[in-house]
Design goal:
about 475 residues; 23 strands; globular; alpha+beta; about 30% helix; single chain; six-stranded mixed sheet
């Protein structure tokens, strides 16, 4: 069943400002068998081509050959039919396209051809005509009745859900709007739940809503002003694979067991991890360690500050797993691979967190560095180099800790002594249990890392069985 709940508190229809005309409009007529009739109209003085992302996509396109289309009176018009259901059956992958019931979740380039021939990235407005109980949703911002793709290629445009699915709109605080003295601004998280979940999907909505609140408390506002989160039912229990695509508008896909168990949902890390990616740009230049390291490091902190995980559990997780990444430092983080990206990156973030707190006498920590970079405009649709992201972090924190660590371990290489780091922090694993030594040299900073500084307590996010 397709349904839509508009929250009265959600005020996104601010006074309409004059919007520039798009370079292209796309009108998509969706049939019940999920065949799409797509019409492109682009303003152009020169011929354009329209290209599929790969051969599996090309195989489902009919009525068009990949040749140049000449403009008529300054307009290039191109039409094609696309079998979205057959494409999803063929690829059968949550990363590329998957069908559940009468709906398909697919990245936008899984059905929309890429216009080529512009001297810059075109602005594309997408509108859909649907049967009465069908929906169409993306992570792109809305301009009037259109979904607008700007500043990125179609190939990086993120997910879309098309067909019959449950849609919930969840009000979130816009990025940075929970800072002291900041103006209150609202954003929206659109949650698409594909067919196949057993039981009450209200439990899934509640899980996503509370997780978004926990993220917002860490970032002082949610990670994006508009976002799509799509949940795909799978047969295995618990939470499975998650994926974030940021271009144009951030989108997150998470597999969830068809039988919903609220306690299992809140004990899992995948959704929290993926939402962290939506608060950061894509980092080029062999920057996977930075992106995955930040998400790996922050995830247990967010859950601990929400009250879903204990401080001891966080330290045990780090002591158990950070040795898996330590070898990457001696070789240089530019050479990190596999699990090193996650755990060397997390170790780097721990050292940055300690360094920032020490350099600012506890006034700031890694959360100020990362959130400040987000507020400066380095959000998910952006792409940057490692050194540029570190510089933005430094500006937000007011110290050069992040850049200095990048120079040492990314531009250069040096070993890291984890045993010495744990001793300095006063953290030890004894008989399988965490022991904390408050007399250790950096114990003062350690106390702020997981739960935050006492001067800025993070409100807990009650679990459903606690409300």
């Amino acid at each position: 069943m397709f349904f839509r709940t508009l929250l009265a508190a959600l005020v996104l229809a601010a006074p309409a400002l004059a919007q520039p005309a798009p370079d292209c409009t796309v009108d998509v007529t969706v049939a019940r068998d999920l065949k799409l009739d797509v019409t492109y109209r682009c303003r152009s003085a020169t011929a354009l081509t329209f290209e599929p992302d790969d051969q599996q996509i090309a195989a489902q396109v009919s009525g068009y050959r990949n040749t140049k289309v000449e403009p008529v009176n300054g307009i290039v018009e191109m039409r094609y039919r696309y079998d979205l259901a057959e494409y999803a059956r063929t690829v059968n992958s949550p990363a590329a396209g998957i069908k559940r019931g009468d709906a398909v979740l697919s990245p936008i380039p899984g059905w929309l051809l890429e216009p080529r021939g512009f001297d810059r990235l075109p602005v594309i407005d997408i509108r859909a005509q649907l049967p009465g109980d069908f929906g169409f949703v993306t992570g792109l911002p809305k301009v009037g009745d259109a979904w607008r793709l700007a500043g990125t290629r179609v190939g990086f445009a993120g997910y879309s859900a098309i067909g019959k699915f449950a849609l919930e709109e969840i009000a979130v605080a816009a990025p940075g709007s929970l800072r002291p003295g900041a103006a209150k601004q609202d954003g929206v998280l659109r949650l698409a739940i594909l067919d196949g979940f057993k039981g009450n999907t209200a439990d899934l909505v509640d899980w996503v809503r509370r997780t978004a609140q926990a993220e917002s408390n860490y970032w002082q506002g949610f990670t994006a002003k508009h976002m799509l989160v799509a949940l795909v039912p799978v047969q295995r229990p618990g939470v499975g694979y998650g994926r974030t695509v940021s271009g144009g508008g951030p989108t997150v896909m998470v597999e969830v067991g068809a039988t919903v168990e609220p306690r299992r949902l809140f004990n899992d890390w995948v959704l929290v991890h993926e939402l962290i990616h939506t608060g950061m740009p894509f980092v080029r230049g062999r920057g996977t360690w930075l992106m995955e390291g930040a998400a790996t490091y922050i995830e247990p902190i967010i859950r601990a500050r929400a009250g879903w995980k204990s401080e001891d559990e966080v330290w045990k997780e780090w002591i158990d797993n950070m040795p898996r990444g330590v070898a990457a430092f001696a070789a240089g983080l530019t050479n990190a691979s596999g699990q090193q990206n996650y755990w060397a990156g997390a170790t780097f973030m721990l050292m940055a967190d300690i360094g920032i707190r020490r350099a600012t006498d506890g006034a700031k920590g890694l959360e100020d560095c990362l959130a400040g970079a987000l507020w400066s405009g380095l959000d998910a649709p952006q792409t940057v180099q490692v050194v540029d992201y570190a510089a933005a972090c430094d500006r937000a924190a007011g110290v050069t800790v992040m850049s200095e660590l990048v120079d040492r371990y990314y531009r250069g290489a040096a070993p890291v002594d984890l045993a010495a780091l744990w001793k300095e922090l006063g953290v030890a694993l004894v008989g399988g249990r965490i022991v904390l030594d408050d007399s250790a040299p950096s114990a003062r900073w350690r106390k702020m890392i997981v739960m935050g500084p006492p001067s800025r307590p993070t409100p807990h996010v009650k679990l459903p069985w606690e409300s």
